[in-house]
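User: Can you predict the 3D structure for this chain?
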Amino acid sequence: MNIFRTLKAILRDAYGKGAMADDPLKGVQEPEYVRRKVVIPPLAYVKKALAAADEYLALEIVMMVGCGLRNGEARAVNVNNVVADDVYRVHEQIHSNTHKPAKLKHRKAGEFREVPLPRSVREAMERYQEKHGATKDGYLLRGPSGYYTEPMERMDGAQVH
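Assistant: Here is the predicted structure, written as structure tokens:
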């Protein structure tokens, strides 16, 4: 959620309804969004992370590395999203605040994107499902609240350097 846009909408509404005599946003410039540099970890780092991770985190890492998913999208890994042998449909994420499925970032509810599904990733999903099963809705990763929500930063286990 963009705090500035939310506040702007509230203030514009109040001004429009006459609750404020002067436009509170007159002369205010919207902050610029500056993208941070994207850093792709080297393969050696990914291998170390996989070696240090438990099964849950390992599947999350495999989904992120193999399909280019964000953390929340990887936590929502679902067998029903495999729409072809080599295509995975991303249409939701596990929201970091609510810990429940939510629409994708920068997308409207119901919108999705399809990403390549490498055979190694599909096989990792299949192995995980064979060992741990899936929910009735097809989710592979589960946590105490039902959905897998544990961020990498809080995982027990060795740190990767």
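The chain has two domains: 1-34, 43-154. The longest strand covers residues 87-90.
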